[in-house]
Design brief:
Elements: E1 6-7, E2 20-22, E3 29-34, E4 39-44, H1 48-52, H2 56-77, E5 83-86, H3 103-108, H4 114-128, E6 139-142, H5 151-160, E7 166-170, H6 178-186, E8 190-194, H7 200-203, H8 216-226, E9 232-238, H9 246-255, E10 260-265, H10 271-274, H11 280-301, E11 306-307, H12 308-318, E12 338-341, E13 346-348, E14 362-363, H13 369-373, H14 376-382, H15 398-401, H16 406-413, H17 423-438
Parallel strand pairs: 5-6, 5-12, 6-7, 7-8, 8-9, 9-10, 10-11
Antiparallel strand pairs: 1-4, 2-3, 3-4, 12-13, 13-14
């Protein structure tokens, strides 16, 4: 990224070259965006009038606008699924306050038998053979509830289909004994853990067993056992109970050599989650402080702790097609880049919808996956378009944010044509990301090698 007067990298544009100023809270720079297209540029405040009156930026944008619009359209509407979140059980041994799976399902739900799980992966394999590029494997992420409550079936599936899929497991870590860790690491399965606080009393405010017991120390033990393994991460769910502890939480993650973490705003799909929803401004302040602390630790140690959900916002601006997560775009990745499989074979756009029967598009064992992807249930999600509803339709950053999450928008705010739970929080993330880009610091917050294979498709510098 150039530090000159105007710079935009891998920008996207559309029909109208009408650029509007966006205050990003920077002393010297502001952003110009085309609100309809996600085109962006950084401009020195003392050059704003000159830039808007015409010149190299507007001329270059006009020449490339149609091309950039096609790229954005392809990212939003032309993806094919490359991953499935497989829920091998409805059950969980934790009773987290904010879980998006109904409590009755987690307590009394069903397992998928090993034979049934193997049959599911075989059917998915046949589908992916029709849509995946040659030489690229689809991803299967065992998700939950708690997938390791059905460990034997999960292990059988990994052994049977290790040559066909890239596997991951998202777990609460309570069942990660030595033999389980050895099995997963020997097979290069990526492992995601969950921990919400640097101290047990913070974690325990939202994450306890059904019997009321703490799991904090078990997660720490799993983190210690995984130290040195390069394919693991930790998710922290940000709630009103822990946001003031995000800085020490990042310090704990860094000290335990966590390669990647996520500081995810709580998804407010079900009422329990809404009871611990933090205010947008408080969440933004604590979140940005935690991301800055991760950078300070990198400067001190030379070792990065990437905050993946924020890194994804940066990538949404710098290199949209290189983003690794598909929540921060409209339509989101649910039903487009991935879908979810329930233990009974039910197919949903995303695991977030598994507790909402109206969003079941069909059953893997009865229906064609192509038919499910085109079903009315999936179309509710894949047709959600921030260009078409207020206030998003006039928002300058709507394609860096995507108004997540459709499940919480539907359940909390009354429909798909509604914002999600944290509009202000996402706006502050984007402003912060643009400040980092203006200061030339963005690369420090991204994975090493993030720009390999990424081309600079647009760059203008005014001298």
């Amino acid at each position: 990224m150039s530090a000159g007067a105007v710079a935009g990298r891998h920008v996207n544009g559309g029909g109208s070259p009408s650029l509007l100023p966006l205050d990003i809270g920077h002393a010297d720079y502001l952003a110009l965006t085309d609100p309809a297209t996600a085109f962006w540029a950084l401009v020195r405040k003392d050059r704003l009038a000159e830039t808007l009156s015409g010149g190299p930026l507007l001329d270059a944008y006009r020449e490339r606008a149609t091309e950039f619009a096609r790229e954005l359209h392809g990212l939003r509407f032309e993806l094919k699924p490359s991953a499935v979140y497989v829920n091998p059980t409805e059950r969980c041994n934790l009773d987290c306050t904010y879980c998006y799976i109904p409590r009755t399902m987690r307590r009394d739900g069903e397992h998928m038998t090993a034979d049934r799980l193997l049959a599911a992966l075989e059917r998915l394999k046949a589908y992916f053979a029709t849509v995946m590029p040659a030489g690229r494997k689809p991803r299967i992420i065992f998700h939950g509830a708690e997938p390791l409550m059905n460990r034997d079936a999960l292990f059988a599936a990994i052994d049977a289909y290790g040559d066909d899929y890239v596997f991951g497991v998202q777990t609460n870590a309570t069942l990660l004994d030595d033999s389980t860790l050895r099995f997963l690491t020997e097979r290069r399965v990526s492992i995601g853990l969950s921990l919400d606080g640097p101290l047990a009393e913070i974690t325990d405010a939202t994450r306890l067993t059904f019997g009321g017991r703490s799991v904090h120390d078990k997660v720490l033990a799993a983190m210690d056992a995984l130290r040195g393994y390069d394919a693991w991460s930790v998710i922290a769910t940000c709630t009103s109970k822990n946001i003031d502890q995000l800085v020490p939480l990042v310090e704990l993650f860094h000290a335990r050599q966590v390669p990647t973490c996520m500081l995810n705003a709580v998804r407010c799909t079900l009422p329990g989650a809404r009871s611990v929803k933090p205010a947008d401004d408080a969440l933004a302040a604590h979140f940005i402080a935690a991301v800055e602390r991760s950078h300070a630790l990198f400067c001190e140690s030379g070792r990065k702790l990437v905050v993946a959900n924020f890194a994804n916002i940066l990538l949404a601006i710098l290199a949209p097609t290189a983003r690794r997560l598909m929540c921060d775009i409209s339509p989101c990745g649910g039903g487009r880049a991935f879908f979810a499989l329930a233990p009974d074979g039910g197919l949903f756009p995303c695991s977030e919808f598994i507790g909402l029967p109206a969003f079941e598009g069909g059953n893997l064992f009865r229906d064609s996956i192509d038919d499910v992807l085109a079903s009315p249930a999936f179309a509710k999600v894949t047709g959600r378009d921030v260009d078409k509803f207020a206030p998003c339709s006039t928002c300058a950053i709507r394609h860096f944010c995507g108004a997540p999450c459709p499940a919480e928008a539907h359940e909390m705010n009354g429909g798909m044509a509604r914002i999600g739970a944290f509009c202000g929080f996402y706006e502050e993330q984007v402003r912060y990301a643009l400040r980092l880009i203006a200061d030339g610091r963005a690369g420090d917050f991204l994975w090493d090698g993030w720009d390999e294979g990424v081309e600079t498709s647009f760059q203008v510098t005014l001298q």
